[in-house]
Design brief:
This protein has two domains: 41 residues; 42 residues, no CATH class. Helices cover 51% and strands 0% of the residues. It is built from five helices and no strands. The chain is globular and about 55 Å long.
Length: 96
């Protein structure tokens, strides 16, 4: 969605790719799918092979559960590719 919004602002695919830290090919793919299919083009297409066993919501929950303690490159990259997520952590209270 961020790709589409940045393109809708009139930015060139190369600028959008750099800003969102993705390849220009990916930006062009999503831009083309929107031009061709409008909003329906923003849904991810089914992939070949065995269907996924976990949902997007489950993946997001695992990421959120682990982000506070495991700030690995993989987690940072996951968030960098999904700029719609903004995380605010509040300290936990430990009376003991």
């Amino acid at each position: 969605m961020a790709t589409f919004l940045a393109c809708a602002e009139g930015h060139h695919s190369k600028v959008v790719a750099k800003r969102l830290r993705m390849s220009q090919v990916t930006v062009c793919k999503w831009r083309g799918r929107f031009v061709r299919d409008r909003l329906d083009g923003l849904y991810d297409e089914p992939r070949p092979g065995t269907p996924r066993q976990i949902s997007d919501e489950q993946i997001e929950q695992v990421i959120m559960d682990n982000y506070g303690t495991h700030k690995t490159a993989m987690i940072r990259n996951w968030f960098a590719k999904r700029p719609r997520f903004h995380v605010h952590f509040t300290p936990t209270y430990d009376p003991g």
